[in-house]
Amino acid sequence: MVAETGTIDRKPHSFSLPKDNAAGGEPPDGLFGTTFSEDGDDRDRLVDFLKGLERLLDFVVKNPDGMVPTELHPYLKPAWRRVRPRFAPAIAALEIVQLSELKEAGLTGAELDLKLAALRHVVSKFVRAFREEWRSVPKILAAVLGMAGVIIDSIPWLHELLEAIREFTSFVEKSADVVDSYVGEDVAERGQAEV
C-alpha cells in the first residue's frame, strides 16, 4: 500500500510518510460498508458500521506508516490480535438488539442518519486525502476514529463487549493526532528554511 517511505526523525519519536509526500495508494475497499446508505434496517446499518470499523483498524495496523508513530508499530499487531476477536460477539449482540433500545440510544432514524452522515463526510475526506495528499491523512484518520467513537459510545448496553474496541480505536485516534503534530512541525520547519 505505502510505496517507498522516508523517515522523519523526532526526538524521541519518529514517523514515516511516503517519499515526497506522494499519495499512499488505496484505502480498504468498502470502507465502512453500506453505512453510506440511508436505506435498510438501522440494526443492519450499525452492524455494517462495526464491520467497517474493524476493516479500517485492520488496515491501519497492517499499514501504519504515516498514521501511527514508528515506535508503536511493533506493538500494534499483538494488541490488535487481542482486540479484533471482540468484534464478532459485539456484532452478534447488535444483530439481536431490540429496535426500542436503539431508539432510546439515539441510534435510529434521523439521529442515526446524522451520525452516519458525519462519519460518511470524514471517511470521504480520508479516502480523498489518502489518494491525493498524505500530509492530511493522520488528522483526518483521527477525525474518522473520533466519529466512530461517538457511535460506539452511543451503544451503552454493549459497553463490556465494546470497551476494548473503543480503547483501541481511541489509542489509534490519539496516535494519529501525534503523527499529525509531527507533520505540522515538519511543514513549519520547511517553511522557515525556505524564507
Element layout with pairings:
Layout: E1 5-9, E2 14-18, H1 42-62, H2 73-83, H3 87-95, H4 99-104, H5 109-132, H6 137-153, H7 159-194
Antiparallel strand pairs: 1-2
Helix pairs in contact: 1-2, 1-3, 5-6, 6-7
Query: Residue-averaged pLDDT, rounded?
Result: 79
Helix content: 55-70%
What best-fitting shape do the alpha-carbon axes yield?
globular
Distance from N terminus to C terminus (CA atoms, Å) equals: 35 Å
* Subunit arrangement of the protein: single chain
Radius of gyration equals 18 Å
Whole-number count of domains: 1
Structural commentary:
- The chain is mainly alpha-helical.
- The protein has one domain.
- Helices cover 64% and strands 5% of the residues.
- It has 7 helices and 2 strands.
- Strands 1-2 form a two-stranded antiparallel ribbon.
- The relative contact order is 0.16.
